[in-house]
Amino acid sequence: MAEHEWLVNRFEAQRAHLRAVAYRMLGSTGEADDAVQEAWVRLNRSDTSTIQNLDGWLTTVVSRVSLDMLRSRASRREDPAGTELPDHLESAAAGTDPEHEAMLADTVGSALLVVLDTLSPAERLAFVLHDMFAVPFDEIGPIVGRSPNAAKQLASRARHKVQGKGAAPEADPVRQRAVVDAFLAASRTGDFDALVALLDPDIVLVADAAAVEMGSPEKTQGAAAVAGTFSGRALAAEPALIDGGVGIVWAVSGRAKVAWDFTIRDGKIVHIEMLAASDTLDDLDLTILGD
């Protein structure tokens, strides 16, 4: 009985933290409570004598449960934040219990939740755990099934989307694909003006270390400069799904050699990540779509 009481007390001491992690992952107080409850169920089924860091173990379990819920939501194409208010705003009425009010006062705003819903599940988890809770990438990597370096890349891409100005990034893959197809067509034919028209005036193209070694500048900024980089090129590039978003990839015998991860907003490309590091490419959730 004493051991069970100790476990209950330890879990209750972490409950607020676990709810905060799950809420930022899921954007729903109901789903957050479900994730925390599932963590308690799994804790009771586990041999706690083998758990060296119980607090870290609980955070990992809640994160994995939340990730599974996000992936299930994505497969059903649900969009709980979308154009409707998140449930934390709908339920924030007079008479809410103090613990609930404290959590709401400390949580992210509705605008950020809308942006978070445009991220892939893996991007969202990496960003939330690292940027909001300072979890190191060597712990985040195993949760998303990626290397620490790939987890760092996920968080970087998510950070750009979250910090971007203006409307939230385009989440509809059909509209993303239309922009990417137009970009590829203009690139292949060398239609400079068409390329510029598809790019945000302040677009930034960032290359990873491996791409820089291949001769790409580390950073190229501005529509004209980025258009010049692609004009008359990308002849062998193909559209691809990259961690849930549409971008382009150069592949040899079906194996990606370089990927360009696009962030699209209001019909224009606002950011491009050029990824050539082999471990990053191997860890991407990548599907070549073909022309």
Describe what you observe in this structure:
Strand 5 and strand 6 (268-275) form a beta hairpin. This protein folds into 2 domains: 2-118, no CATH class; 173-288, Nuclear Transport Factor 2, Chain: A (Roll). The chain starts with a helix and ends with a strand. The protein has 14 helices and 7 strands. It has helices at 2-26, 29-45, 54-75, 87-90, 98-105, 110-116, 121-133, 137-144, 148-163, 173-189, 192-198, 209-213, 223-230, 278-283; strands spanning 199-207, 219-221, 238-242, 245-252, 255-265, 268-275, 286-288. Helices cover 56% and strands 16% of the residues. It has a 7-stranded mixed sheet, sandwiched between helices. Helix 8 (137-144) crosses helix 9 (148-163) and helix 10 (173-189) packs antiparallel against helix 11. Residues 78-108 have low confidence and may be disordered. With 291 residues, the chain is α+β, with helices and mostly antiparallel strands.
